[in-house]
Structure formats: C-alpha cells, structure tokens
Write a structure and sequence with these properties.
- This protein is mostly helical.
- The protein has helices at 14-37, 44-49, 56-67, 70-83, 90-111, 119-124, 127-160, 164-212, 216-225, 244-259, 263-270, 275-307, 312-315, 324-333, 339-374, 380-405, 411-435, 441-464, 469-472, 517-536, 553-556, 561-567; strands at residues 578-580, 586-588, 613-614, 619-620.
- The protein has a two-stranded antiparallel ribbon. It has a two-stranded antiparallel sheet with strand order 3-4.
- The radius of gyration is 26 Å and the shape is globular.
- The N and C termini lie far apart (67 Å).
Length: 631
C-alpha cells in the first residue's frame, strides 16, 4: 500500500485550553450553586429526584444531552462519511421511541409513585425480579460509562494532542463533584448548559465547513456525486448493516430499550412536577434529538465533500474512523484560536452529561433497590449522606472502568454493544409487566434470562465473527489527490494469508445487523415469559393493581365497552380506588362514591382515580404522591 505525506493539522493552543476549561468550571459552579441553594432540604428524595418538582424545559435539554454522548458527536459524522446519509433515518426511530415512552411507559411509572424504575418490578412481580434487573443495570451502566469516557478521550488525544489521562480524570472528578454536591437538580441544569455548548460546537464546524467547501450547494453536489445522499434502501435482509428497515425497526427497539425503561430517562421524567410536564419534556427532547442528529449528519456530509479526493483514514493520517471528526475540526479550525477548544468542549459536553446521568441513576437504583431494602427506617439526613456517598463510589467506579478500557483493545467495541444487548431484554421484561397482566414472576424471571442469553449470543458472535463488506456496504473513498511519500511505491510480495475458518452461523445468525440485537432480546424475553407463565399458571387479572398495567386495548376497542373490558383480562381498570397493603399486595378500598364510570386515566373522569390528579392541567402531579415508596 502506498504511503502519503501528511498535510499536518494544528494542535491545541492556550485559548483552546481556556475555552475547554471554562466548560468544567461552569459545570462545577452549577453543582456548588445547588449545593448551597438546597442545603436545608435534607431528604434523599430531594437529592435523587429533585423533590419531583422539575419543569419540562430543563428536563428536555437534560434528556437530549444525556443520550447524545461524545460517541454520537464523534461517531455519527464518521458513520455518514463512510456509509452515507441513511443515518438520518434515526430521526424516525427517535420519534417512535419518544411516542412509546411518553404514552406507554411514563404514565405507568409516574402514577405508581416510584423513584427507581426497578421498584415497579417488585410491585408487579416480586423482589427477586427487581434485584436481578437492578444488578444487570448496574453492571452494564458502569461498563458503558467507562467506555463513553475513554473512547472520545483517546480519539481527541491522538488527533489534537489533548492529554488523555488528564481529560479522563478531569471528567470523572468534575462529574462526581457536581453530582455529589447538587444531586439531580445540578445534573439537569448542567446538562442543559452542556446541550447549548454541544449546539454551539456543531455550529462552528457547520459554518466553517460550508465555507471551505465553497457553499452549501457545492458541498451538496459533492456529497451527491459520492453517493452519500442515498438514504432509502428498502432491502428487507436483516443481515444488512443499515437499511430503511434495520434503522427504523431495529433502531426503534434499540433506543426504546435505552429510553423507555432506562433509569436515567425515567428518573428525569418522574422528577417533573406533573405527568403533563413529563410528557412535554419528552416531546421537547425529541426536537433536541432531531437538531443534534441533523448537525451530526450534515457535518459528515461536509467532511466527505472536503476529503472526497484524499481520505485521511485510507491515507493513514488517522488510525481509526472515530478520529476523522476531530481531525477535520483541527484541519479547518486550527487557525482560529479557541474554536477547536469549543468543539472539544462540545464533545466532552456529551461525555459529561452521559457520565453525570449514569452516576446519578446508579446512586438512585442502588439506594432505592438495595440499601433501603437492607436498612429500614433510615432518616432523611442519613439517606441523603448515603446517596452522596454512592455518587462518589460510582464516580470512582466509572472512572476506573475508563482506565480499564484502555487495556481492553478490541473489547471496547464489544463493551459499546452491551447497552443494546441488555436494553432489549429489559424492554421485554417491562413489556411483560405493563402489557400482559397475566404474566407471573416466574415467566418474568425466565424471560429475562432467555432474552439476555439470546441477545448476548448474537452480539458476542457478531463481535468475534464480524460481517464482511458485502453486508456493511461501506462507500468508496479516494486518495487520488493525496501527495505520495515516494514517487515509486515499494511493492512488497507477501505470501497470501489464508482466510480463517468461520462456523456455519458466522454468515447468517452472527451477521445480523447490530440494530436488531435489542429486538432479538425483546422477542426472546416476551415469548419465553409468556410460555413459562402459561406452564406455571398465569396471574388472575383481579389480583393485579390497575395502576401497573397500561390498557392499550382501550385504543383498539374504543368502539365497544364490552370488548374493551374483555381485553382487560380481569384487571379492574374501572375500579373507583386502589391501594397497596403493608406487604405490597393490591386490594380495593371500600366504595365511597356511586360513580361507576371507568377511571383508569384513559377516559372521562380520571380525577376520581389516583391521588394527585390535577383537574386544571388534566394531568397527574406529584403533590398527591408524597410518599417515598409503596413499601
């Protein structure tokens, strides 16, 4: 392979470091502000979920920033650069994910008065299922968060010369600092600030990238000539990496596993002061997701237009595709002091928001699902100090995982897939609880085990035996305009290396698009759960609390009250009142009203249903859900 003369790009200047440091200073300042402001509010509830009085706008910005990590900021433009603009179809997946989360999952979680998502599993099934799901979440979140810290730091270090370990430890220390001091409110408002930084960073790249390409029209024509605008590929083959179906269907399952039942998302939604605000936060967040996605896709198109005749990756100027975006930034913005620093701040805003969300969520599930179950009757002050201690513990754990990731080599790619492989079975577990009222705890536990086994089988198999280029379809890249190192290339003659043997499943099952891993886990969990339930004896609908079930059949059978009730499977959605006994079991309160209208929150008179209904907003608020848990 010929070698080329690297044109060289700039390195970080003093002003770049100043701009980047400002991100950490402001983020820490927000934590100090809320630590001082909320110092008299000593409850763990206030610390972990902001007293459940947050408004929709900062929560929406926080949701967007938390899930648009630096992996997205650096990886999505590279994806478009190499594979084309089909990545924009994720906009449709985001829409479906937000719709399902807002209308299917959030109402159940919000009205049940929980703090930890996995508390629902004990209310619906039993403590065994809750603890199992909690432990799976803790392990996969620590691993994923460590990689989210390490991967972008490594990419930026190798291109910009930015100190690798300095950035890793600074990220871990600052996130732990403001999470521990300010709790969820500090996390949410810091995320909102970091979301603004992310947009500003992208805008600098988009503006300068458009200028160096000779304008929007010229950049668009170059991208079209390079086949980067071929978005719609309706090939139904599930082995193809990115098609319309893999992105819209598989992407919806993947992101629903991350969004719909993930503690980081749900914790922010239930921190809102009403269910209406929680839903609005999700829908406003969708706009933010579209904005970041559009910026990332267009950055990738501009990058291709600029390097269409001299690809830095093929020429060896960068060693990995994730380094393309920072290389592009240093190439076009290196002569503008401070602007490369703004983009690096943009990338690390994604990292900070993701790590902070993970630390806060890990502290919440550990406190609610493990500590409070082991130590009863903790005082508010002691609970708050334990929660802060857990933030420090998980901050150290995530930073240590980032250090361990540096020794993993190729396993880093596998670790990034763990989020998707765990998300599908978790989604299936909650789907069994919310959509299928007859599912028992044995079906839920068995389904979770089967889902984890199936999704890890296909995921690990795909990592060990990656699909060939005939399934990934990378678009052509050129080095025609690169300057050769020598006029006469030295051609070495090497004996051909025989291709390693591949098992029979390598070109079928293991070749499946990574976006279908979550779908595989969901399908396996639901099917196994329902089969085990049918074999071990299903639950009686009358014994299930209606608050824990979402009767989607009301939409399908809106024309018939008879068929609607038939599809309730015995669940008393038209009950006047419901309560939990001391042991967590559901029972009916004595009737105090002659009103027989259905009151399940999907019909005309929800104000007689669960405490906390606000007739002015026609929504449920947290005012009536003041207890910490149902236990």
């Amino acid at each position: 392979m010929p070698e080329f003369v690297s044109p060289g790009v700039g390195v970080f200047s003093t002003w770049d470091y100043v701009v980047f440091a400002a991100l950490f200073v402001v983020s820490s300042g927000i934590g100090i502000f809320f630590a001082v402001k909320e110092r008299k509010k000593a409850s763990s509830r206030e610390f972990l979920v902001g007293g459940k009085q947050m408004s929709c706008v900062p929560v929406a910005l926080s949701l967007t920033a938390s899930f648009m990590s630096a992996v997205t900021v650096l990886g999505a433009p590279s994806e478009v650069y190499r594979f084309g603009g089909a990545f924009v179809l994720f906009g449709f997946s985001y829409s479906m994910v937000v719709l399902f989360t807002a209308e299917l999952f959030v109402p159940v979680f919000y009205r049940s008065g929980i703090t930890s998502t996995y508390e629902y599993l004990e209310l619906r099934f039993n403590k065994t299922v809750r603890i199992a799901a909690t432990l799976i979440y803790i392990m996969q979140t620590i691993v994923y968060t460590g990689v989210v810290v390490y991967a972008p730091a490594l990419a930026l270090n190798q291109v910009t010369g930015f100190n690798l370990w300095g950035s890793i430890f600074a990220t871990g220390i600052v996130c732990t600092f403001y999470c521990t001091l300010g709790g969820l409110k500090a996390v949410v408002w810091t995320d909102a600030f970091q979301m603004v930084v992310m947009v500003l960073g992208f805008l600098t790249v988009l503006i300068q990238g458009t200028i160096v390409n000779g304008g929007l029209t010229s950049a668009w024509e170059k991208a079209e000539a390079g086949s980067r605008l071929l978005v719609f590929d309706f090939d139904p083959d599930p082995l193809r990496r990115h098609t319309f179906w893999t992105i819209t269907v598989g992407g919806t399952f993947t992101w629903l596993g991350i969004y719909g039942v993930n503690q980081s998302t749900i914790q922010r939604c239930i921190s809102c002061k009403s269910e209406k605000h929680a839903k609005l936060a999700l829908y406003f967040n969708l706009i933010g997701l579209w904005v970041i996605l559009g910026c990332a896709v267009f950055s990738g198109l501009l990058m291709f237009a600029y390097y269409r005749n001299c690809d830095p990756w093929t020429a060896g100027f960068v060693s990995a595709p994730d380094q393309l975006m920072p290389y592009f930034v240093m190439d076009i913005l290196g002569s503008f002091p401070g602007l490369p620093g703004l983009f690096v701040a943009c990338a690390f805003s994604g990292t900070l928001s993701t790590v902070a969300a993970s630390i806060n969520a890990l502290a919440t599930v550990t406190y609610e699902d493990l500590v409070k179950n082991c130590f009863k009757n903790l005082s508010n002050r002691l609970g708050t100090w334990i929660s802060k201690g857990l933030c420090i513990v998980f901050g150290v754990a995530c930073t240590s995982m980032a250090v361990a990731a540096s020794q993993m080599g190729g396993v880093v790619q596998a670790a990034l897939s763990i989020h998707g492989m765990c998300g599908g079975p978790m989604l299936g577990l909650f789907s069994l609880g919310i959509l299928f009222p007859w599912t028992n705890w044995k079906g839920a536990a068995g389904g979770l085990v089967m889902g984890i086994a199936m999704s890890f089988w296909v995921g690990i198999g795909g990592f060990v035996y990656p699909a060939g280029p005939d399934k990934a379809f990378p678009l052509p890249l050129s080095t025609n305009s690169c300057l050769p190192l020598n006029i006469t290339d030295i051609i070495s003659t090497l004996a051909p290396t025989p291709a390693p043997e591949r098992p029979a499943l390598a070109d079928t099952w293991y070749c499946m698009s990574y976006l279908y891993y979550s779908a595989v886990g969901w399908i396996a969990t639901v099917i196994a759960g329902l089969l085990i339930t049918s074999l071990t004896g299903p639950n009686r609908g009358e014994d299930v609390n209606p608050v824990l079930i979402r009767p989607v059949c009301n939409l399908l059978c809106f024309w018939s009250e008879k068929y609607k009730k038939m599809c309730w499977c015995g669940v008393q959605h038209d009950a006047d009142c419901m309560e939990f006994n001391d042991n967590g079991a559901f029972s009916m309160k004595p009737e105090t009203s002659t009103n027989k209208e259905p009151q399940n929150g999907l019909n005309k008179d929800p104000e007689n249903n669960i405490p906390g209904y606000n007739p002015e907003e026609k929504s449920y608020s947290n005012a009536g859900l003041s207890k910490d848990t149902h236990f």
